[in-house]
Amino acid sequence: MSTVYMNTLTITSSAITNIDLLRATIHITAGQQLQSASVSHSDGVWSLNIDCGRSGSADVAQSYVDQTGGNYHMLVQPNYCPYTNNYSNIPTAMNFWFQANVTFSNHTVSLFFGQDGVYGTNYWWIGGPMILNSSPYKSPMAYLAVSNSTLYQVSFVNSAVNQLAISA
Q: Percent of the chain beyond pLDDT 90?
C-alpha cells in the first residue's frame, strides 16, 4: 500500500463564493491510495485538500492536458519545474488531478487542479478552457474568463506554501 500524504492548495480570493471539489473526477497514478478529498473556507481563503499517495505518471499528466485544453490553458507554480516539456507548459508526469466547480457571484466555471512532484517538491497546476495564458512557458500569471465581461488574474503567490491568488 502506498504512503498517504496531505496535499493542500490554498486559494486566496474575495471573489469566490463557493468551490465544489468533484471527488469522482480525481485521477491518481495507478497503485496510489486516495484517502480523502475536501474543501474548507475561512475569510476569503479556500483550502483544497487531497490526502493520497504521490507517484507521477505520464498517463495522469496526459489526461490532465486533455481536460484543460493544452498549454495555453494551464498555469504551473513558478520556479523550476522539471516535469514539464522543455518547450511548452505541459506536464510530462503528474501525481494526481481533479476538477472543481468554482463559483464567482452567479457564474460557475470548471477548473482543473493537479500536482506533479520531483526531488521532494510538489508543484501545483491550475487549468481549464477558461484559463487564458498567452505566454505559457513558465509564465508567472494567467487570466480566468468567468463571463464575457469578467476577467480575473490568476497567479501563484508563494510557491513554498502552495498559495494561488485569483483577483480582479
A: 63
